[in-house]
Fold:
Amino acid sequence: MRKFGFYFCAILVIFLSGCSQNASIPFSTNAMPNGSSAKFEGDVSDPGSIAFFKNNVGDRVLFSIDQSDIDQLGKDILLAQVDWLQVNSDYKIIIEGHADERGTREYNLALGARRANSAREFLVSRGIESARIQTVSFGKERPVELCSKENCYSENRRAVSVVSNLNF
Amino acid sequence: MKPFLVIIFISLTTFVQSAPLRIVITEGVIEPLPYAAPEFIGETGASNELAIKITELVKSDILSTGLFREVPKSSYISGIDNFSSPIQYSDWKAINVQALLTGSVLVTGEKLSVKFRLFDVFSNNELGKGLQFNSTKQGWRRIAHKVADEVYSRITGEQGYFDSRIVYVAETGKKGSRKKRLALMDFDGANSKYLTDGSYMVLAPRFSPTGERVLYTSYETGTPQIYIIEVSTAKRTVLKNRKGTMSFAPRFSPDGQSVVYSLEQGGNTDIYIMNLRNNSRARLTSAPSIETAPSFSPDGSKIVFESDRSGTQQLYVMSSLGGSAKRISSGGGRYGTPVWSPRGDRIAFTKQSRGRFHIGVMRVDGSKERLLTASFLDEGPTWSPNGRVIMFTRETQGESGVSALYSVDVSGRNLKKVTTRDGGSDPSWSPLGK
Structure:
């Protein structure tokens, strides 16, 4: 009879202790500005506030299935964003691109990036300094509407302009 | 003629060139092999508890394949009282047991020793030699998986997959604000551990070829970046890319020295490769379309990926040095997340067609496409180390929709949910024994 010895358990123990050490990975110090935006949104009656931007200017444009072209309604919203950003010149902007859930994870990340970039290019073409704008894609990971129907999907295919007066 | 061996051959060898055997397979009829595994003998009183647990886990592994049927203990004519005694083949033939597994378990202090023997009842022969596994008591699950792998391997002629692990994304919380943590578990769901704490979102972990490292995409800095985590030390390093770019969809090269991934810049996503020894980076595709989800062939010479350069997501194969790519997907619908099989002969993928999602397999030239699953949302296949089973993500629809891990045989049979503590997505299967 052949005899085999396995000493992996010592390794396993090392591994497990490694895991427990890892359980407290610190929060990134580079947290997303929008993560704490509620506190700083200000009063909707103040035209220089984030609350005003979100409610009165419009912070998002929507897209057709698989598309990243901006339609006329989207252009009108982005033009209003341009006006606001030109007045409120100390604000920076992160454009978050999103997709609906009817696609694979990686493709939707890339598609969300395309959408965010479409909005970015429009703003830049109308005079917003490109250094003020960052883009990020969340793909299908952060839907705002949760049903699995087109009326929800159409709200999720979006590029949201998140403004903040924090430095990147 | 060894009927026992021949029948197994029929059950598992889908692509064998043998006309009468193929008929059985194409009709989808599998007659599971009757086997018996009497409770392993506890060599001392202190060994009995683990003997029971180990026997149950070995049987659970073997039965999970769908290729075996257990002959119940109530029909046994004779039992196994002593691991070394000769086998009364006639007693097992009489109840139509074709494979007989016997074992013994000895616990001495913290040490565990497990022996087993496998018998081909109808040929009155032992199948392979008896084997002994030693470890500490805490290693009992892994020993049981190794016994099951050995049994599977001797009967099918193929490597097993039970002594393996899955790295995946553990999901908790409501749709729309899911907490996604990197998690590691045994292939059967045991010994689950988190590798990240959920304070930031992580996606799509991928094992290195030796199972020692895991690649994943993290939103830790607010924008998706690729990290490598050492499994044994939890030490993490970031793959440095230019500020203002997004990197994701990483996979190791077969030699573990490079990472192929997607990099997005200015809204355009292309495929890059980074050499981990010197951090040098090369661009492999250069098109205004989306190129993502790259996966190496096992020999390292080619890369399969998805692109929407034709207007919809399709699968392409190119040299691992880049250059021109050949489209391989040709059915109607959209194809994504291609993964080259460990044997190199097939590509698993996600297909979207007529409002449904499927996991499928095709040959590397795109021929012989077969869809294995269908649901509201199936995606992200990963191969078992022996290339016989595919694990993937299945998500249910609606506001209460959840993600779970499922597995299915490459034959399309034996679809089942994989046990996870939380919801789960994006599984990646380790190599055997890692």
User: Anything to note?
Assistant: Chain B has two domains: 3-156, 165-429. The radius of gyration of chain B is 23 Å. Chain B is about 15% helix and 40% strand. The domain at 3-156 of chain B is CATH 3.40.50.10070 (Rossmann fold).
